[in-house]
Hints:
The structure is a single chain. This protein has helices at residues 23-38, 57-70, 83-92, 125-137, 159-169, 194-201, 226-248, 262-267, and strands at residues 12-15, 46-51, 74-80, 97-101, 110-116, 152-155, 181-185, 205-209, 251-256, 279-280, 283-284, 286-292, 295-302, 312-316. It has 8 helices and 14 strands. The strands form 4 sheets. Strands 1-5-4-2-3-6 form a 6-stranded mixed β-sheet, with helices on both faces. It has a 4-stranded antiparallel β-sheet with strand order 9-12-13-14, with helices on one face. A two-stranded parallel sheet has the order 7-8. The protein is of the alpha/beta class.
Amino acid sequence: xxxxxxxxxDGIRGTANVHPMTPExxxxxxxxxxxxxxxxxxxxxxxxxxxxxxxxxYMLETALSAGICAMGGRVMLCGxxxxxxxxxxxxSMRADAGVxxxxxxxxxDDNGIKLFGPDGFKLDDELELRIESLLESxxxxxxxxxxxxxxxxxxxxxxxxxxVVFCKAxxxxxxxxxxxxxxxxxxxxAAYRAAPAVFEELGAEVYRLGVKPNGxxxxxxxxxxxxxxxHEGMSTRLFAGWAAELKAAGIxxxxxxxxxxxxxxxDLGLGFGWSWDDLAHGYATTVSxxxxxxxxVQVTVEPGGMPGAPAAVTVAPAGSxxxxxxxxxxxxxxxS
Length: 336
């Protein structure tokens, strides 16, 4: 068997906008995929495309779509979705191929292209070799369609919902996640919408991390940084009770910082300003100004004298009516 030059064990990967991850190659790859998928078919070829949240995904998605349309294919764009979602949608929509634009755990300036067959599984080596041969020989560049035979593209508006329903269907009907608090760290990646939605719809109270992608922050949290979600899990246990008490006390604005998470407390209607940045050595050392019934209340948290000792929590003014239950203990020096 001839050795593959472009395809590795997980598709094509490299630095975005540097060969082979260029829009020029992506366009030709789109043409080759459509040409191979067309074999033996009289109807229009359908190709599903999904991607992660990398900035270069727009460039490669557009180029691939152009190549597919140039060969008369129909593109079905799913937007940011996890790789298994694209495989699943390719099968459910009777597509002839699926394409995922992603470099998984690599830095944001890398990207990759993975190909799936109509069965939702990775293309076998023989088909990848056939695609490489078309690219190398240039034969695919000489095949063109014109007029009404040129392809088109559409966006699968319910792609996210389809995948959420599929994931939930794998969970036993007689079970639920009611009463569970789950920290979901999506690493600002492809699952930033799907993962929280699945757990929430199964009944869990979800605390979101890594759900604000900007094209450049993928993998700054998530599996490559497990300490972040571990810290968030600790914060959930220590401060979930505080959140309920603050909300019950009618606090509607926060000036200053306490330990917690912007998304969580904002979801509870408590406003912004909660951050892990003020956590030191396993305990909080901060002073925060809380607006409570139109009065400013300061909450001070100070560590105890020894590891394991309760941290001191004081509220000023003392007669504000705000009561916080102390669930914090002092950590050992240098711990986190």
